[in-house]
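Exam revision sheet. Question 4 asks you to relate a sequence to its structure. Input first:
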Amino acid sequence: MFARLLALQERHQELEVSIADEAGRPLPDQIKLQGMKRAKLRLKDEIQAVRNARLRRRKRRRLAAA
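Answer key, structure tokens:
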């Protein structure tokens, strides 16, 4: 799960750089930018879901150990 989280975070960062590069062009492709921004938001949601799942597992383990 940790590897999945790292991969998602890495892809999120790559999209951030791509968005900045495209936005910095003299005539940025607005459709391309919009698509990249949507993909970045989907990744952000997925990253949060993975984090939440990890927290729930930790909490269950603590409760089971108690």
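Marking note for examiners. The radius of gyration is 17 Å.
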